[in-house]
């Protein structure tokens, strides 16, 4: 069976029947957006890896307990979990213990890197780095909306609910974020490919 042709819900159903390959495919589809959004919140690779692993352990646990409600999209659900874990991490304001490879499950064991040629990979990486730096330079409220909108594909209504602000406030923060990013690009003469 070619798991690549299945949608997220079909992969989840297959995973629940014991097909681990289905979960690997699900993870592979969404790992980049989820990890990047966590990293943009934490600005620390080690902390981002810890939270990323915790997110997927929570997802696996929720799926296995039959508590997953697939009314929304899987990615948006996973992004809400990662957002909440980032917020919890900031509230505790202390370093989380690292989950190493000595644990029974290491999410990084099933990560697969996409096959690009070296030049495409370098260009994409450089562009992503430039955009990340622009997003990092934004005020926290604006950065949060950009991450949730771009990486989680959340609607402004969902962002407003998650961040506990009005839709107009969420829209305004996005507008100012885009204005600020445009100014930074012009002032620093940054070329985005």
Automatic annotation (TrEMBL):
Domain of life from the UniProt record: Bacteria
GO biological process entries? DNA-templated transcription initiation
Write one Gene Ontology MF term: DNA binding
Q: Indicate the segments forming the RNA polymerase sigma-70 region domain, all copies.
A: 27-96
Keyword check for DNA-binding, yes or no. yes
Family of the protein in this entry: Belongs to the sigma-70 factor family. ECF subfamily.
Its protein name is RNA polymerase sigma-70 factor (ECF subfamily)
**In which organism is this protein found?**
Neolewinella aquimaris
For this protein's source organism, the top of the classification is:
Bacteria, Pseudomonadati, Bacteroidota, Saprospiria, Saprospirales
